[in-house]
Each structure stands twice: as C-alpha cells, then as structure tokens.
TrEMBL record:
<dbReference type="InterPro" id="IPR036397">
    <property type="entry name" value="RNaseH_sf"/>
</dbReference>
<dbReference type="Pfam" id="PF13456">
    <property type="entry name" value="RVT_3"/>
</dbReference>
<dbReference type="InterPro" id="IPR002156">
    <property type="entry name" value="RNaseH_domain"/>
</dbReference>
<feature type="domain" description="RNase H type-1">
    <location>
        <begin position="58"/>
        <end position="176"/>
    </location>
</feature>
<dbReference type="InterPro" id="IPR053151">
    <property type="entry name" value="RNase_H-like"/>
</dbReference>
<dbReference type="InterPro" id="IPR044730">
    <property type="entry name" value="RNase_H-like_dom_plant"/>
</dbReference>
<protein>
    <recommendedName>
        <fullName>RNase H type-1 domain-containing protein</fullName>
    </recommendedName>
</protein>
<dbReference type="InterPro" id="IPR012337">
    <property type="entry name" value="RNaseH-like_sf"/>
</dbReference>
Amino acid sequence: MISNLGEWDWERLEHHLPISALESLVAIQPPKPEYGIDVPGWREKFWKGPDPDWVKVNVDTSVDAVGNRAVTGGFIRDDSGGWLTGFYRCVGRCSVLLAELWTIYDGLNHVWDAGFQRVAVEYDNKEAVCIINRMSLTLDRSVLVQSIWALMQRDWLVKVCHVLREENAAADKLAALGKGCGLNGSIFVVPPGAVASIVEHDQRRWMQWLLQWRGIPPSVARFHFAYLYYWFVVSSRCEMV
C-alpha cells in the first residue's frame, strides 16, 4: 500500500479501508526500509482470525518460579473465532526457554492429531518463535527443536508467528489453569469457564473489526454479533451434554 515515491497509496487504500482508518493514517508516516522493521504504535491489540480455510493455534506456557514446573497450554480456533479444541499438560521441570519450545511442540502435535492441514501457530514469546523460524542459532542442535522442525515438514501447511501478549490472553489463561495438572494433561472440547469469556470477547472483537472493515452498517453488525454469541453459547452447551 506504499507508492513508488514511498508515500501512502491513497487511491488503493480507499478501496480497502473505511474513512476512520484513513483518517488515522494521515498523521502516520509510512514505513521505510532504511528505518528497519517497523512496529506501528497504532496496531490494534486483539486476537485476529486466520485466513479462510485455515485454523489458528494460540499457545502459551506457565512456569513455577520456585520449582520450574512447566505447563503448556493452547487451543485451536477457526476463521470466525470459534473454539475447536484445546489442551494443557505438565512437561516436567525445565528452563523457561525449554518450556516455551515445548509449548510450540505440544501445540503442533495437538493440531496435527486433530487433522487440520492449514495451520497458523501464534505465540507471544519472540525468542522461541525466532528459534523455530531459524532466525536464531540458539538450541538449533537441540533434539526438541529438531523434533519441532520435523513436525513442520510433514504434509501440511504450517507457520509459526509472534504476536503481542494482548492477542494471546486466552492461551495465557489456559496455561495458568493447568498448574496442577499431570503429565498426561487434559483435552477440552469446550473452553473452561475462565477461558470461555476471553474467547467470546476475542470472537466478538474480531467479527466487529471484520464487519466494520467491510463497511457493514452498525445495525447489521449488531445482528451478526447477537447471532454469533447465540451460536457460540448454544453449541458449547450442546457439546457439554
């Protein structure tokens, strides 16, 4: 969306963004290669759905500060933000970095076992994501890292991306809930109560953003929100019965 002169390409942007977004861009300088990687301060900090026909796996870890007992947790959502399945499990006692890598490994295994073929994994630990994406040589000879790479090379499309903590709140809560779990862990067909409210909020925020981006009037958007909330609550209760 940047012109050949290095400025915002307003003609193209007007076809894709609402007026409110364009007005925000006016006061923002476009990113420039000579300034390095740009991290815009106006980036909206909320969970965003995957591309159509993809699923998204958000993962996180919880490590006991006293005994280094580590728990991994994560779950899969579809492109509308709907919960598909989740997990948490204890991986024993290890360093924080190893726990972060175990989290990605468990997330990949969980989504592979669930049978999905187009997968985006999101995690808020930049160091672990850089290792997995071969942007860092740290632990590159580790058996765990090699196992993660082998998983990613299976017959599927998978990418591992870094996100902000605010975008990973539900996974953070799920991992925290698993502090007392055993080595076998647990699988969740529906989200635990403390996680469900965050998932519902994420879903409503994501659908709201999508509808506004597409220029759908607020009155119609409210109908969509009500329908999605009803569908999420009713389907979750049916799964529990």
